[in-house]
Amino acid sequence: QQSQQQQQQQLSSPMTGGYNIEQECAASGGFISFELITGYVLSAPADSMVMQPGTLQLTDCLNLCRQNSSCLAINFETGLCVLLQESADKNPQALQKSQFPVFTIYAHKICLQGDRTNRCLKSWSFERVIGWVLNNLEKKTILTKTRLECLLACYNEQAFQCRSFNYDSASGSCSLSDMDRHSLPSAALKRRHYVESTVDTIDYGENNCIQEARGICDFKPLANRILKTVDSIYQDIKTEPECRKRCLQAPYRCHSYDLGDSSNPVCRTSHLDRNSLQQIQEPYLDIQGALSYELDSCYNVTVLCKSREMVARVKTNKIFNGKIYAKNAPLSCMNDITNSMDFELSMAFNDQCNIVKSHSNGVFSNEIVLQHNDMIVTNSDMGLNVKCQYDLRNQTVYNNINLDDFMSGREPIDIASQSAVVRSPNISMQILRQDGNHITQAQVGDSLLLRFQITDERSPFEIFVRDLYAMDGVGGAE
């Protein structure tokens, strides 16, 4: 206990060291963040490190280092945080693999420079995977002098959302991609693209600062396994729904959670899952009856209510191949999607999409389906109910009148306001040429223009045409 108190006291005072990355970063207009390397540990002399046992969250360990100007890096495993005055940038030979009996997480400070209005607020900004590469998915390739320059190019990319990069230290080649280990939709694609590098000069980097879908999420269970090392432990949370909530609200891209040993449940969350653990040997503990939950798909769904249609817009966290369609009109109201993470379905206010209309309260609603396989409905598909509400009621409009200017010298009149019920406006319809000019005769096949107009120019209403019927004069209509 005395030793632990001494360590606590040592942490409260600055570590001694010569190099101050904060001063150098601030002078260049940047801000401090961290880069993670999972499965590695930095060896350092005992007098250049401070241990903090009992640390259950990686974010707490990073914050301790962030608050200490002499701390350059940390080693972390569940329950132990070590603050370091050295880093792999200054001493790369000191960085060694550390995977047994549990794997260690190493992180060092980096200086992020770029748009201050879009500063990354995550606990760390990037993760590096030594000796691995994401092949054949680059969107842009540039040359940079250092790996940090390549990282900053990804962080500041404006043409697309850069999710990852490959950097070759031998050639300076920096390949930016809008894909990463988690956005590929199938295990086969991951095995084809995310592979060990054939040369030892290429590393993979993944962006933790990206904005990704977290609205409606699906997790898949992994039976009888839990991670040896996790990012966070919440001892007061012992139920699966609450643990899932913690994962989705984590200050990092959380991809898995578990409740530990079922005999003594406790919530544990991590940025790692099977997609990002290929470089780690035996990352799991085998515990009979235990369950881990890995993030599969997430969707952000928004509805745009227009005058003639409602548009359901969907953003996903991984590549979507399939279709989106109205449940009750799968053929006439459908959109085929190929290799996209951002797509939509437009549903016109006519009979094509079978939109349910409630004129009493102005609600227009429909059920849509996200189908992952273009031909087959599976249990991974998702149904959603989308609604738009329009105020279609008659309204009373009040207009205050200032009579002082023209009532001077006259008898006062007890009028402070006037009111009127705004009823449905009168609408005219004209049949015109395509250029908008009047027409006196037409033949079958001529292109015509139908113009609908509110006759009262002072009317506060705007209009949209919802249904249009052509009558043949003998009772037929289309």
What is this structure, in a nutshell?
This protein has 6 helices and 28 strands.
Q: State Rg.
A: 31 Å
Summarize model confidence as the mean pLDDT: 85
- Architecture per CATH nomenclature, i.e. the level-2 architecture of the largest domain: 3-Layer(bba) Sandwich
Biggest beta sheet attributes = 10 strands, mixed
- Number of structurally distinct domains: 4
Strand order of the largest sheet: 3-5-4-7-1-8-14-11-12-10
Describe the structure.
- The protein starts with a helix and ends in a 24-residue tail after the last strand.
- A hairpin with a 4-residue loop joins strand 11 and strand 12 (173-177).
- Mean pLDDT is 85; it is low at 1-14 and 397-421.
- It has six helices and 28 strands.
- 11% of the residues lie in helices and 42% in strands.
- The strands form six sheets. Strands 3-5-4-7-1-8-14-11-12-10 form a ten-stranded mixed beta sheet, with helices on both faces. Strands 15, 16, 17, 18, 19, 20, 21, 22, 23 and 24 form a ten-stranded antiparallel beta sheet that branches. The protein has a two-stranded antiparallel sheet with strand order 2-6.
- The chain has helices at residues 2-12, 21-27, 58-66, 147-155, 187-193, 240-248; strands at 31-38, 40-42, 49-55, 73-77, 79-84, 95-97, 105-112, 126-130, 132-134, 138-143, 164-168, 173-177, 194-196, 202-207, 216-227, 232-234, 256-258, 267-270, 284-305, 309-326, 329-348, 356-358, 363-371, 382-389, 395-400, 417-422, 427-433, 448-454.
- With 478 residues, it is mainly beta.
- The chain has four domains: 21-207, Hepatocyte Growth Factor, CATH 3.50.4; 216-297, Hepatocyte Growth Factor, CATH 3.50.4; 317-390, no CATH class; 427-477, no CATH class.
- The chain is elongated.
